[in-house]
Amino acid sequence: LAKTTQPVSMDSYEGQEVNITCSHNNIATNDYITWYQQFPSQGPRFIIQGYKTKVTNEVASLFIPADRKSSTLSLPRVSLSDTAVYYCLVVKAAGNKLTFGGGTRVLVKP
Amino acid sequence: GAVVSQHPSRVICKSGTSVKIECRSLDFQATTMFWYRQFPKQSLMLMATSNEGSKATYEQGVEKDKFLINHASLTLSTLTVTSAHPEDSSFYICSAGEAKTGLADEQFFGPGTRLTVL
């Protein structure tokens, strides 16, 4: 499984856009990029998944350049409740286990 | 999305006792479930893959005789921490995947079980 590298922590303020970049230089052809969010003492929650270009859903956008060696999770107009740890994972299709890296601890300040 | 539950949410036990944690997929069937352990301020570490009707697959360094996994049905997997010691105190989380055509599986995580061994 491709290893991922992302910032250890980021601070932001309410209403700002938060962008977290993850590098995955060894990503394989059949790998997908997936992001999870985890609040303290809770299980992770799926945010978004993509293969290439841009994916958007109701909570976030995921930007993936053509070489797919990195990806950026974009959280628009964050609120205090978005304070959490965000994990970038590279996942193979169909049922494979997840390998979590260190994650990025995002702190949203008032 | 699909829902995964865990029971109990927290448990405190004495050293040397065994503790069973249940993981249930409430509205879908899961042939495969995963068990993770998470220490404070650290990331999730995969312990084992639980396969319905067959033996679990353990990650390197995880003692299969200490962490017994049983996946007796398509909606239930159990993790039993045998002869628990204080160093086993941790947050245990399970997950189950729902297959998606053309995409990688989306994993649904349980709320976790906080184990404290005195």
Enumerate the spans of chain B where pLDDT stays under 50 for 5 or more consecutive residues. Answer: none
**SSE pattern of chain A:** EEEEEEEEE
Strand tally of chain A is 9
From the helix content, strand content and strand pairing of chain A, which structural class follows? Answer: mainly beta
- Major beta sheet, strand line-up of chain A: 1-9-8-3-4
Sheet of most strands of chain B? 7 strands, mixed
Order of helices and strands of chain B: EEEEEEEEEEE
Q: What is the subunit arrangement here?
A: heterodimer
Q: Which structural class is indicated by helix and strand composition of chain B?
A: mainly beta
Percent range for β-strand residues of chain B: over 45%
Helical residues, percent of chain A: under 10%
Report Rg of chain A: 13 Å
How much helix is in the residues of chain B? under 10%
Q: What is the overall pLDDT average of chain A?
A: 93
